[in-house]
Amino acid sequence: MNLKVGLIILTSAVIPVLNSVNPFDKHTKELPIQGTWQLVSGITIEKGKSTFTDYKKDMKQIKIINGSHFAFFNHDLKMGKDPKPVFVAGGGKYTLKGDTYTEHLEYCNYREWENKTFKFKLAMKGDTLIQRGFEKDEKIGVDHEIIEKYVRLKD
Fold it and tell me: What is the pTM of this model?
């Protein structure tokens, strides 16, 4: 066998093996978060007290995530005719590094929340996205942990 042919065969066999043991693979693969998500439940933990909210009961919230931005919309299910009507909207840029998801809230109808950054840990279980982290900002008087559960909406 010719030396060149032998080297080509050896290289062809070794490259796939080296690619399969690349130690950086697990760090470069991102969670598949792009899409539209509906918030189904949340837990807020503040000063040791937990509050559970079923977001399917009286309101609906979706979060839309593309390659660089997120947006969320939340409204009551009584078409604003509730004594305390709800409409919340916001969005901005995000980063995702492994399971660390950081939102940079650029727009929000609660204007005091604008230009804030919030860091979360994400977990995926099938079509469910779980977001857990702290929302803390002394200026707006918020200091709590949130755990939110979203389900992926199908087209």
Answer: 0.76
